[in-house]
Amino acid sequence: MLKFILKKLAMMIPMLVVISLVVFLGLRSTGIDPLTFMVPPEVQSQSPEIVEQLREDLGLNDPLLVQYFRWLGNLLKGDLGLTNKGEDIAGIIADRLPYTLELSLYAMLFSSIIGIGIGIISAIRQNGIVDYIGRVLAVLGQAVPQFLVGILMIWIFSIKMGIFPAANRVSPDATNAFVDAFMHLFLPVTTLTIGMVAVLMRYARNTMLDVLNSDYIKTARSKGIPEWKVYLKHGFRNAMKPVLVILMFRIPALIGGSVVIESVFSYPGIGTSMTNAITNMDYNLVLVITLIIAAVMLVASFMVDVLNALLDPRVRLGE
Amino acid sequence: MSNTNSMSIKEQNKSAASSLMKKNIRKFLRNKLAVFGLVVIVVITVACIVAAATGIDYGTPNPTIMKTPPNGEHMFGTDTIGRDMLARVLFGGCYSIFIGVFCAVMSSVLGAVLGAVSGYFGGKVDMCIVRVSELFQAFPQLVLVMMLVAILGTRSMGNMLFVFVITGWMTTFRMVRNEFMSLKGETYVKVCEAFGMSKSNVMFKQILPNVMTPIIVSTTTNVAYFILQEASLSFIGLGVADSTPTWGNILNAAKSIQVVQNQWWIWVFPGAAISLFVLAINFFGDGLRDVLDAKQQ
Amino acid sequence: MKKSVSRVMAAVMSAAVLAGALTGCGSKTSETQAAATQAAVETQKAAADTTTAAAAAAPAESTGDKTLKLVLSTNDGSTKDDRVPTPWLNHNMATNLMWRSLLLADSSLTKTSPDLAESVEISEDGLTYTITMKDGLKWSDGEALTADDVLWSIDAVMAATNKNSIYSAAFGKITEKSADGNVITMKLDSPYASMMDILAQFSILPKHSLESADAATIDAADFWKNPVTSSYYMMDELNVGNYFTLKLNPNYEGTAPKIEKVTVSFVTDFLTAAQSGGADFLYGNASDLVEGMESLGSYQSIPVDVLFYKYFLFNMKGVDGKENEAMQNIEVRKALIQAIDRATLAALYPSAMVLNSGVPNANEAYNGFEYTYDADAAKAAIAASGYDMTRPLRICYYNNDQTSIDLINMVVYYLEQLGLKVEATLSNDGTTDLFTTREYDMGFKGKSSFSMEEWYSEYMSTDALFGNVFGGDTAFDEAIAELSASTTQEAKNEALKKLQALEQEKVYKVPVFTVGNYVFVSNNVSVPSGVEFCNPLYTCDIDYANWEIK
């Protein structure tokens, strides 16, 4: 098992390198000249030699691979580089990443608890009240576009009722950082959770149903094992595998969702930075943010593999 | 999951296919929600296609009647520049439904084929495809969309479809692959192989039907997912060009809090169209799953 | 450490509320369910306690202790949510409370009184300015504010990329300048009638903290995260992505304002901010905002006399000589404009006035020319021009309020009626996209103009921004110089007529209309009587020291 984990872990590093290389080359192949953003237009036309000098200094004339390894080298030294406007990327990440992590982790946590919980209960008591309410809730939460939910939340809770702030993450006159965080996070986290819960609930219910209808559960029941033990030990354990896979695969959706939700709630997270960086063709910044997200997703994928191996020995043997 | 069970269904399928079909239809019709879903899907789709075919005017602005509430002439009212909302919602439906269905089906097909190949053959083939899938998985969809927009220079419908399919197959892939890896060691597969059945036959006729249920469930959710995804991308300004009236682009008017508060018909109708359609798809998908789920029979 | 603890607690609380809400609908169907409900009930109690605490804290937060709440929109294409915006591009209330100019304008922006300068004398030929600075001025960090800062600021604004073109138009005239103690002497190559007005709009920035920054991108310097100021307030705290706060500047030599603290939040939508009670002062012209604000009832809505142009510009040619071939044919440009019904577009704004040049139709200098709307003639003209109809026409705009989007949608519709394929792109960095990357044919822009001269100064071949889309065409330079030198109304009108004829001949910029602008002041704030507001993107005397929070 340890060997399996180590092997998977070792695979992640070349993967990250390949991803960064692909993104690097992909962004470079767009033909966008970063100097367009760095040098004022009149300088570009009046003194092309300055531009050429700058290009040389920045190493933009070197072969792409050389540029890539230089960038990678700097990255390993902890230098994330500068944006087109000359801002320190490390600073931007340090300012905004915690906000996004905060937002998405809470949404992930609550949606897993609520989604898996309700999903399993509705599978056990199929066609019961919880099942129906859960299914309707799940489908409704999934049917209404997330940004619309967010906008309606702002309308109802910020404007009509005046309870929660409509934008930002920190109030300038917050007396209590904890209350302030709660107030600012409540609406975006709730909005994200509503969207996430739906999918998890569906999957948890469906897979639990699959498991409960399987022969080994029937066998377990026939052996006279208590009902709760059947559910917990046999049902839950086996149903968790696909649910966990889905949970992990919701991470990109979660990140995508937070990009949209951050825009709805004017939330100063990394999603907003990325949207801006992309529309501004700021590829140094896009590169770093993409890499961070890629790393998060690789870790998630790694966890799926490990969990799979833990829950289903056949996978490990198959490796 | 046991082989005897699946084998018996196989035989049953061959001997009594027509009676099973009837049984399935009856079973489906008993599921009220699923029937409701199917009806809604059909009604909305037909309405949209008919509207588009008759060439209703969805595009002529007329500021003198802008923001008119629903009335006899404009049943859904008019939008912020005086275009008929009903015509826009119907026309938008054609685009949005097409995006959803096309991308869901294509990405599932791609995912299932790659998953089957990867799971069945294993080894180097598997490793390569898994790496590629991880590579794709590691890119947020947003970045891919933007990279393509930057490279191709336009926010066209074609780019959108391409990006959705290329970024949407991994979930199905993982599901199918995992299932194949679990099942390929089963005795019945070995038996089939021993009988000299061709590899593609074993893969697609023997093993794949076992994963059809989750594939169908995920395809239905994906139709909904892509419709919603299109709306979200439009919301952050990266979707299909504004002049194409997809549901997402129409719903963009809800960005203005003033519209949300005072012109409910401008966002309620497109919002309801998206939600109702997605809802119907999900109900229908659930119903289909109940019918197709061999294990429940 | 504390922060993370509070975050975890916030997580637990919101979990409790959510769990409570969702499990509330379930019944006691299983042990796990029951246990979950039990736990939820318990935590819900705790959550309820804190929610009431939060609710109690909220009103205290909103009234604050005499805090003026301002908002900055990050949607204007230049303001970023991690720094104070430069006052050299657009002014706003916040920067007006942080930096001063040599002179102070009144609400008409044309009458000035001393501010940093004690006096300004102009020689009879209008070519020599002698500016005497006040004694003992200090920056908020205690350094002396001297004539040196003024000279440096003038050089720096000329080198900056993101700046208002009024500065380059005026300061481009300066041939030599020197300082002797408190006295600055500037010599001009030709008279510049509105020099005093421009000086009243020109914020002096501290040389000692900005000297080392890159001249062209000075607006991106780290300075703006913790700037040194010269007016009522100084920086207290910047919270990236959220807000910055201002506190009284102890080195300000005048009367301290009654309001001791100012908070400035970065928002994306003024209306939402106002409706959720987060803004005491804002402004705008889009019908959504104006209608929404007027329906709120808790704001005073004040129309301000502003020359706010909405206009199209054609991407012609870079200073690098790179031409945008498709737009070179003037018949194409004329046909495009002829296809757009500007009078109908005007219905989108609360009080828009269609105009045909930089000179409003009601002005005596207006030459009577009109861009007419005629879809059929436009269709014939575009066909005759030989324009490649398969080539998509690219429109670039950057205002993302609903009214602007609606307007562009209508323009797209009109142009599609010509048989063109049209792609409209909403840019989120208008300055870069319009003037640097230039991937468009027709741009749509707004300009809150200081005067008609400012509209025409955009045609100057040397203009840092527009020079790059109009190819540094020198055709206008002479007439612009005439206008800026003219001291009598007749001479001014003469120059304006000449400029109108030129701009209608060239068709580089086509105005759509001017829009009415409004300033909104919350009823929480009491503004001394007699205060008149000026164009909110400029600065003038609003007797701020006597503003109070009720």
Account of the 3D structure:
The complex is a heterotrimer of chains A (319), B (297) and C (550). Chain A has 319 residues and is mostly helical. Chain A is globular and about 85 Å long. Chain A has 14 helices and no strands. In chain A, helix 1 packs antiparallel against helix 13 and helix 7 crosses helix 9. By secondary structure, chain B is an all-alpha fold. Chain B contains 13 helices and no strands. The model of chain B has no long low-confidence stretch (mean pLDDT 84). Chain C is α+β, with helices and mostly antiparallel strands. Chain C contains 17 helices and 21 strands. In chain C, the strands form six sheets. A six-stranded mixed sheet of chain C has the order 14-18-13-17-15-16, sandwiched between helices. A four-stranded mixed sheet of chain C has the order 1-10-9-8, with no helix packed on it. A four-stranded antiparallel sheet of chain C has the order 4-5-7-6, covered by helices on one side. In chain C, 51% of the residues are buried. Chains in contact: A-B, A-C, B-C. Chains A and C meet through helix 2, helix 3, helix 6, helix 7 and helix 8 of A and helix 1, helix 2, strand 9, strand 10 and helix 8 of C.
List the helices and strands and how they pair.
The complex is a heterotrimer of chains A (319), B (297) and C (550).
Chain A: H1 2-28, H2 35-38, H3 41-46, H4 48-57, H5 64-76, H6 89-124, H7 129-143, H8 146-160, H9 177-212, H10 215-222, H11 227-264, H12 270-279, H13 283-311, H14 313-318
Helix pairs in contact in A: 1-13, 6-7, 6-9, 6-11, 7-9, 8-9, 8-11, 9-11, 10-11, 11-12, 11-13, 12-13
Chain B: H1 3-15, H2 17-30, H3 32-53, H4 85-121, H5 123-138, H6 141-152, H7 157-168, H8 170-183, H9 187-194, H10 199-235, H11 247-251, H12 257-262, H13 264-292
Chain C: H1 2-23, H2 31-63, E1 67-73, H3 93-96, E2 103-105, E3 112-114, E4 117-122, E5 128-133, H4 147-159, H5 165-171, E6 174-180, E7 183-188, H6 195-201, H7 207-210, E8 233-239, E9 243-248, E10 261-267, H8 270-275, E11 281-284, H9 287-296, E12 299-304, E13 307-314, H10 330-338, H11 342-345, E14 353-354, H12 375-385, E15 393-397, H13 402-417, E16 422-426, H14 430-437, E17 442-449, H15 452-457, H16 477-485, H17 489-506, E18 509-514, E19 517-522, E20 525-526, E21 548-549
Parallel strand pairs in C: 1-10, 15-16, 15-17
Antiparallel strand pairs in C: 2-3, 4-5, 5-7, 6-7, 8-9, 9-10, 11-19, 12-19, 13-17, 13-18, 14-18, 20-21
Helix pairs in contact in C: 1-2, 10-12, 16-17
